[in-house]
Structures are given as structure tokens and as C-alpha cells.
Amino acid sequence: MKLNTARYTKTLNDQAGFSLIEIMIVVMIMGILVGLVGPKVMSSFSRAKVDTTTVQMKQLATMLKNYRLDCNLYPTTDQGLDALVQKPTGGQDCRNYAPGGYTNKIPKDGWDKDFLYESDGTSFTIKSLGADMKPEGKDYDSDISVTDKD
Questions:
Q1: Whose CB among 4, 34, 83, 142 lies 3.0–4.6 Å from 137's, allowing a Cys bridge?
Q2: Model's pTM, two decimal places?
Q3: What are phi and psi of 109, to 5 degrees?
Q4: What ranges do the domains of the chain cover?
Q5: What is the 3-state secondary structure (H, E, C) of 84-131?
Q6: CATH class of 50-147
Q7: Could you tell me which residue, 121 or 135, shows the higher pLDDT?
Q8: How far apart are CA 34 and CA 40, in angstroms?
């Protein structure tokens, strides 16, 4: 059996493909698009973390106010936010503590860190240190807080 080389060569030449230059141009265009769109996407992602953290803090504040209605005081700093999950054993006794608590678990902020809670029993502050996890900061690194006055 004889191989028809003309036909075999024509088939190889007819196969379409991308040249190295075409691939490089596509990669450059994709790089430019990522450079232009990437910062906007990351900014939206950061904003979503701030918004989520703010909503969670307001929900915790509502639970703390319900706790106060039942117990006449907010949980102290020592009792912490865990007093919303399980009746605290130390400090002033709460006779009207809600059966089953006020929530199943305490959420974390948008950066997966615990909220900071301070209270003397008459007022409270819930705080998140933001993206940089340090006090103060600017933009998305700034602290977020909610008090009993909010």
C-alpha cells in the first residue's frame, strides 16, 4: 500500500492554529482588562466586607438590647458577647434569661476576626478593627463600631 504524501501534506497545511504572536496579543489584552477591572472588583469586595460587618454588628446590638430588656443590664465586658449564646455564670444574675439564649453563635467580622466588646452593664460598644486589624486606619482599614446609642 502506497501512502499518498500530497494528500497527507495538504491535510497538515489545512489545519488551523494560533501563532505565538496571536496568543501573546490575547494574553496582553487580558492583562490590560485585569489591570483595569481588577481594582474595581477588589474595591467592591472590600466594601462588601465592611457592609457585612456593619450589618452583623447591628444584629448583635439588637440582641444585646433584648438581653437588657430581660436582664435589666447589658452583659459586662467580662461576660462578653458569649452571654448571648449561654447564660453567664458570673456577675449579676439574670432571672429572665431567654430559654436557649439570644443566638446560636456569635458571628465573626468580615475579616474572620472576633468582635471587640466593651460594657459596664449600662452601655456597650461593639467594634471591629477593619481590614488592617489595627486601631484607627483609613478607608477599609478604619475601625467600625456600634454602640447602644445607635
A1: 142
A2: 0.71
A3: -75, 180
A4: 50-147
A5: HCCCCCCCCCCCCCCCCCCCCCCCCCCCCCCCEEEECCCCEEEEECCC
A6: alpha beta
A7: 121
A8: 10
For residues 46 and 40, the model is more confident at: 46
CB of 50 closer than 8 Å to CB of 143: no
Q: What pLDDT shows up at residue 15?
A: 59
pLDDT at 102 over 70: yes
Q: Is 138 helix (H, G, I), strand (E, B) or coil?
A: coil
| Helix, coil or strand: residue 41 | helix
**How far apart (Å, rounded) are the C-alpha atoms in residues 135 and 130?**
8
Over its C-alpha atoms, the chain yields an Rg (Å, rounded) of 29
Question: 126 is written with which cell numbers?
Answer: 461593639
Question: Using CA atoms, how far apart are residues 82 and 101, in angstroms rounded to an integer?
Answer: 10
